[in-house]
Automatic annotation (TrEMBL):
Membrane topology of this protein: Single-pass membrane protein
Disulfide bond listed as a keyword: no
Lineage: Bacteria, Pseudomonadati, Pseudomonadota, Alphaproteobacteria, Hyphomicrobiales
Subcellular location: Membrane
Major localisation: membrane
UniProt-recorded name of the protein: LemA family protein
Xref: SUPFAM superfamilies: LemA-like
Similarity remark: Belongs to the LemA family.
Pfam families associated with the record: LemA
Keyword Flavoprotein in record: no
Amino acid sequence: MSTSWIVIGIIVILVLFAFSAYNRLVALGQRVSQAFADIDVQLKQRHDLIPNLVETVKGYAAHERGTLDEVIKARNSAMSAQGPAQVSAAENQLSGALGRLIALSEAYPDLKANANFQQLASELSDLENKIAASRRFFNNAVQEYNTGIQQMPAALFAGMFGFTRKDFFDLGASRTEVEAAPSVKF
């Protein structure tokens, strides 16, 4: 009879541990989802700012149509991207296009002096800093989640419960360009 109690006790302990591991992994997964949603909010604000910036530049640099079209194309691509991998690739392209758009202001002193352009460029710089902070938070959450599903003894249960590795918000080959907020000089 005492052997059966020991077996039942071990089974109860294993079940309690499985519940605990599952709840912890669910919480970590929710943190990753929330962190990605935070990035999404910042990116939507950035996407909303871009048409105003393009219209302001268009008034001063109408013959720079290629650069303006490239920014709009990159914005549309970024808005339709899904998931961290696609979003990070699309946003990387958008950041490059925005950098070229901001660089146009150097060639147009009237544009550089325009109050509307200065305000939009300042808002863009602020948003870039917020996006960078959100990316760091997301990547930290992903790192904690991935560690959680790989550490023993939770690793024994993670696969059974359907927890799989998540991808980081990778900035691709031009990481150094994207990590720095665009410099806006007036």
